Amino acid sequence: MKTIYRIIMMIAAVSLLSCEEYLTELNVNPNGVDPAIVNPNLLVPTVIVSTAYPYLEMNYNGHAAGVMQYVQLSGWSDPLNNYAWREQRNWDNLYSTLRDIKHLYTRSVEENMEFHQGLALVIRAFNFGYIADTWGNAPYSAALNALEGGQEDYFPVFDSQESIYRGIIEELKTANTILSKPASEYTSIRASSDILYNGDPIKWRKFANSLMLRYYMRVSSKLPEYAKTGIEEIISNPSQFPIFTSNDDDAAMGMIGSSSGDSWPATVAFDASESNFDRIQLCAGFRDVLVDNNDPRLNVWFNKVRIPIKVSSAYGDDEIVGGVRYLHPDHIESNNMVIYNKETWIADTEAGKVLIDTMDYVGIPIAFRRGDGSPFNLNPFPIQGGPNVHSSALSDMYKNAQGGMLKARMVTYTEVCFILAEAAQKGWNVGAQKDWYEKGIEASLNTYGVGSSLSSYLNEDGVAYDGSLEQIMIQKWIANWTIAHESWCDWRRTGLPNLDVGTQGLRAAMPLRYQYGGNEISRNNENYRNAITDLQQTDFTEQDGNDSAWSKFWLLQGTGKPY
Question: What are the pLDDT digits (tens) for 120-134?
Fold first, then answer.
């Protein structure tokens, strides 16, 4: 009996232990990953995508793309076409991404995964740089510390724009050092998780130093010696500071194309109406420069109009013959119409004239009318979100969900070349200005498959090297198609290219920054109010006060740029 009793008790004990183990397993979420033990490789694609994709959307068909006159919208267009930046803009998603990046870095330190630490610092610097570029002063040194629970953590101070730029440059230097070992010395790299560079440390190191060039040039008007010393140090020490040397190095994320969230923005693959695609149309300001230069990228990026408009006395007042819409000169005169001219269109619209564009590629002029842009160029079916047979749509490749040219470009070899061309133009010791200028053009043409046109393009009157800063900035602006944020930053600090503002914009000047978001104003009001005292009002801020899209932050104060 004692033996039987012992056996029964042993069975019961084992059962209880098994039950406890089973219950413990049930308390672990089988569909999630415990943040405290998550493998850093699982976080890498998340922080890359959540950084690159929103950046693309803003650059391709967001506000910056309108201000820099790459595109205009045929419907729901007020903030983009007329730069009516009345609204406060929150940065919550950016700081959410930065929290993920912080966790990636923390877990990488805990697991002694140095490659992932360097990667995290590069992506962190990119995001904080974007915030400083766009708003100005912002939480930086005390940001992302809410879990530490102090008053200063819940309500972080806004660091100065200057200190953020200096800080991210130091972070990029640290990343360059961390990533400087031979690839074989890094552990636990999962190449498939790194959707930019397949786990290649030297590529990330080049990304860090190329991004550093961007931010040294960003502050060059305010901190010229600091910028000069930094850029010359990078260029004079290629083994210590490797940078992008070809298009293969570009920090450019391709699209998966399986859903609207991982596909090219406004793809028709998940929009049967095609309205989102149809309403993104070429802007006249960009078109004029491309046409004047016989730029071979024009027909890569945009389609010709489906039905061109021509002037002829051979037909009636207004007739379509052979796929062409003909207008009689008398009809044009009697209906107060005028042919678009890049030199006179603003005066013509102010005089109440109806613009007609007779080119093969037609762009909507910026801020040419109140309301949406759908009626432009005698559109026979002017509906918001509808196509316009007399205006140039984007190239058909942008209808696709993914493709070889459809990438979210964060930093490119093309940009590096133009940064160094500008540095040489300033007299800095980085090589020959002409060489970097022409390399930048070559890199851009190769990116879009028209590299065979390089020789003829470099001989165009407006392209042939003349040594001017204006020429560099115009070519960089062209090459920054789908990277409008960078063009906006360049234009703000140089005033180049010299862009029209239209006749119906919210103000008689282009905006310079975003207003702080309502969420931050309500929950961190004291620090917000302290921050906006550093903003400088301009002639266009009377209606807004300091926190205006037309106020100048530190980067522009005292420079006289762009106005």
Answer: 999 999 999 999 999
